[in-house]
Amino acid sequence: MADLLFLLMVLPLLGCLFVLTAQKNENNAFNATLFAVATGVAVILRLLSATVYPIDGQGEQYMYQWLHSSHVELLFGADLQSLILLFGIYLGIVIGMLGLQQSQRRSKSMMILILAFIWNINGLFLARDVLSFYLFFAGMIVPVFMLVGMFGNVKKVSTLYLYFALNFVGALLFLVATIVIYRHHLGNIGMADLAAAKMPHKAALVLWLTISFAFLSRLPIWPCHYWLSLVSVGAKNPVVYIVTNLLPLTGLLGFMRFWEQTVPESMDAFVPIIDLVGVMTMLFIAFIGVSYREFLPKLFSYSAVYYLLFLLVIVLLPAEYEKNIVYSLFIFIIVNAALTVLEADAENAASENDYSVRGILAYMPKLARLITFFVLVAVGLPISSMFWNNFVLISALFRENFAIGIGVMVAITLIVMALVYELFMMRSLPKVYNADCEIEDISEKKTGFFAVVILLLFLSFFNPLWFVF
Amino acid sequence: MIAYTVLLLFFIGIFSSVKVGVKVDKVLAFVTFASLFFVFVNFCDGMLDATEHSFSFIWNTSQGRNLKFDILSNVYNYALVLPCFLITLLSCFNNLLFRNEERKSVYSSLLIFNLVALIVLITSNNFVQLVSALFIVDILSLFMIKDIQASQRYVLLNMAADMMLFSVLALINARVDSLDIKEILRYRQIGFHEDYVALTGLTAIFAKLGFAVFQIGNMALKDIRFHRMQSVLLLSSPMAALILLLKLNMLWRFSDYFNIYADSMCYVTLIWAFVGSIVVNDFQAKIIYWQMSFWALMVALLRFYGFIWIPEFTYLLMEMYVFINALFLLYYYNNRCRTVSEMMKLRLIHKKRLASVALIVLLTVAAGANTLLQMYNQTNRMCIWLFAILFLISTAATLGQIYFYKGKHLRGVQHDIRFKWTVWTELLCLCGVLLYGGKVQNVAVWVIPIIFAFLWVCPMLRSAAYFYKLRFLQKSDLLGDIYLSVIKSFRLCGRVFWLLIDRLFLDKLVMGLAVVLSHICLRMFRKLHSKPIFGGLIVLLLLVGMLWYSYRAGEING
């Protein structure tokens, strides 16, 4: 199975090669990218299958040693959690790519950047040592920055620079931490071994503070949420929106990998600060989400609130809840991607027909049904495994701290109401409307694809891993 | 066995939801009703058998815990399911008789799926199944309403209530570490924010029932079709809320705030519903107010009976169903006029039809009076009296206006609508069954309809029609405005937060400071470069300082 890990790492690079050599006609680059991603999905499913149903003699985790050096051993491995999240990300990107317009599909550079992003994501999720984790954590900034800069429709260049600077500072902080670890252990160290590593109190504190700040810089926690929101909300390209929205996941993954068992007691004093800022930001973003009048900013607020919920769970609760977080995140990523693409379709239909987005879904029944379903999943109704897992997580938060539980519930309720309200706005006809207006609904192909996604989500309600055979 | 019933209902629902042509649709709707009737007979058979069965399967596993789907068949659950089943069956029957729906079979399937969700709610043994069924009922209500504008407030209010219940159940799960509903008893012993649980849970249930202050969701239903409104009012979220109240009553009945909160809400709702039903001109809105007062009575009586479902509650529900159906006939014969004032202006040419409706109304009042008299005792007498007086006055006033108002400007004539023999006979039979089954023993049962008839013909009550002319009263939407202002204040908060914290503080102040600082640094470095000796000295000093610091800080490496 270690070969499969290697294949998964190499696939995006091979895809890049094909894209680079593709002729400049219709959809060659797009098809090569889609094929690379789809093959990646197949590999992940195989790895998942081997993880869930291990063959005799094989463990549940697979390791692949890349560089054989006594100081710099780069380790890659796969476990259930990372594979499920990777599967979700891949599906999210496939959904985003299918949402691209014909003109957008022709861009070779975009395809290469998407593959570069996927390569980094693969590396990050499969990294099992501190150095490789850092390499992909920092390396990810480049494709994201270029994707946002070239295709993200960011109105102010300064916003883009600030966004980059924020992520760069985060990466630098993590570099400092990596150097401190390297210096202490005279070499690279596996993330699992970090817990056993003994360090002086001050050094440990500095180390964990830098690591925490590095990961927090990726999350939509105050004040980092501001630049993330400016970059995301302006994006007209669904892939760019999805990619920028996946970036906080890397911060979350960092906390999942480092925080669980390895965090020293010296950080205990800072945990309440993270909790407090997290809950306050959740409420703050939820209120801002209510105040928006467009769907996409509301969707951003929704995802920010949920990312912070997962952060609180990771920071506050023991590792046994990791599976619940991962199952919930899997649905969350797919729903976010689907809603982004469908909303972009509604926006496009409205702009092509010189019509307002308000009430647009009254003319597009198929699109309206799809958006309604995904909104209902997003708000946590019992249609997917997100419902049950969120129940477990919120319940555990209540057990840990009643005030935090209340704060989280208020924020979620507010943002859920905002999303549902916006859905009504998109479906209800305005007072003055053109009765003769004929708007083409989304294509049969797309409807069929989303029907499959809906099936995937619905069946997860009964078994979150039903797709693993 | 209820599980068997659920399975059959589920298949009938799927069968009925198949899209067919208009002609086949009628046949399909009839076959659906016939199958439903067959299942009902089967259900009644099981109810009489009354043996306890349990059906359960593991539906999901997490945290080492099995999440079960349970359908428990016992006498109590049968008794709770019975009124829901009966009303669904009768609604499907009425769906056959009226041309209300373009796709009758699809509407029947909706009602059947709703019944399945209600049964799952009633028979649930764990919180997750309970909340899942509740959410499904709410989603189905969205389809039942089938009107985007009308469903907006209804859905948003119910969604907020569902989230409250979600938080309450999550809190209890956090405390008892079990999803089992029976563990509520243990929660009571341990205790953990009981008052929060009681107040939040009860508020959610009152919101779903459409009690005073929260009726805004149900009031939006006045604009949808009558039969759909009736189904939503009796079978959807309010019914689910009543079931929740019964299942989770241990959560709040021992809170210090329970009695005062429940009492005040019930009485305020009764009074508010009375005032609303007198003042409002819209006929469907009046029915919503009457239904609102009915739910208030049910909650109050359930409280007095220790939240135990007794057959009298089933009778009350059926009586309300018959009463609303009689009003539907009245509406139907009066050209489906939206407002009472329009009905008042109609020249009545089909007096026999109206008389037939009047007979049904009087018999329903008698049946209702019989049930309430049987439940009447020292503890609940005030509640029953208040409901009876207010309800009879407001309904008599409205009916009097429709039947006997002598307007100066008769603008319309009753259409020649066929006498609905089947519906009338159905309602008459139902009244007979209710009166016979209720075992009339008290003479007062017959006195009350006579008093009601007297109020009905009494010209004084008809003068309440004066309110219909007051445009500000009819147009005003006080609660709607309040809710809107609450939403607006949330929006305003969001905008202010964004403006003050994000825009002013982060963007302008912090980033502005960073830019100014970087400019100062740049200027400083330029000055250093312009004076090489002085600048070199400063750089040397800085380097020495850094060396010294690194020497001191090197201690951290041990």
3D shape of chain A: globular
Q: Number of helical segments of chain B? A: 24
End-to-end Cα distance of chain B, whole Å, is 74 Å
Measured as a percent range, the helix fraction of chain B is: over 70%
What class, by secondary structure content of chain A? mainly alpha
Query: What percentage of residues of chain A falls in helices of 4 or more residues?
Result: over 70%
- Strands of the biggest beta sheet of chain B: in what spatial order? 1-2
Explain what you see.
The complex is a heterodimer of chains A (469) and B (558). By secondary structure, chain A is mainly alpha-helical. Chain A has a domain at 275-469. Chain A contains 18 helices and two strands. Chain A has helices spanning 2-21, 28-52, 80-98, 102-105, 108-126, 130-139, 141-151, 157-185, 201-216, 225-234, 238-259, 271-291, 295-316, 322-352, 365-378, 385-400, 402-427, 444-460, and strands at 62-65, 75-78. A two-stranded antiparallel sheet of chain A has the order 1-2. Chain A is globular and about 75 Å long. In chain A, 54% of the residues are buried. Chain B has 558 residues and is mainly alpha-helical. In chain B, helix 1 (2-16) packs antiparallel against helix 2 (22-49) and helix 3 packs parallel to helix 15 (311-333). The longest helix of chain B has 53 residues, at 478-530. Chain B is elongated, with a radius of gyration of 31 Å. At the A-B interface, helix 8, helix 9, helix 12, helix 16 and helix 17 of A face strand 1, helix 5, helix 6 and helix 23 of B.
Summarize the structure in short.
In chain A, 71% of the residues lie in helices and 2% in strands. By secondary structure, chain A is mostly helical. In chain B, the strands form two sheets. In chain B, strands 1-2 form a two-stranded antiparallel sheet.
List the helices and strands and how they pair.
The complex is a heterodimer of chains A (469) and B (558).
Chain A: H1 2-21, H2 28-52, E1 62-65, E2 75-78, H3 80-98, H4 102-105, H5 108-126, H6 130-139, H7 141-151, H8 157-185, H9 201-216, H10 225-234, H11 238-259, H12 271-291, H13 295-316, H14 322-352, H15 365-378, H16 385-400, H17 402-427, H18 444-460
Antiparallel strand pairs in A: 1-2
Helix pairs in contact in A: 1-2, 1-5, 2-3, 2-5, 3-5, 3-11, 3-14, 5-6, 5-7, 5-11, 6-8, 7-8, 7-11, 8-9, 8-10, 9-11, 10-11, 10-13, 11-13, 11-14, 12-13, 12-17, 13-14, 13-16, 13-17, 14-15, 14-16, 15-17, 15-18, 16-17
Chain B: H1 2-16, H2 22-49, E1 53-62, E2 65-73, H3 75-97, H4 104-123, H5 127-145, H6 148-176, H7 184-190, H8 194-209, H9 216-219, H10 226-235, H11 237-247, H12 249-252, H13 258-279, H14 283-304, H15 311-333, H16 340-344, E3 346-347, H17 351-375, H18 381-404, E4 412-413, H19 421-437, H20 444-457, H21 459-462, H22 471-475, H23 478-530, H24 532-553
Parallel strand pairs in B: 3-4
Antiparallel strand pairs in B: 1-2
Helix pairs in contact in B: 1-2, 1-4, 2-3, 2-4, 3-4, 3-10, 3-15, 4-5, 5-6, 5-11, 6-8, 8-11, 8-13, 10-11, 10-15, 13-14, 13-18, 14-15, 14-18, 15-17, 15-19, 17-19, 17-20, 18-20, 23-24
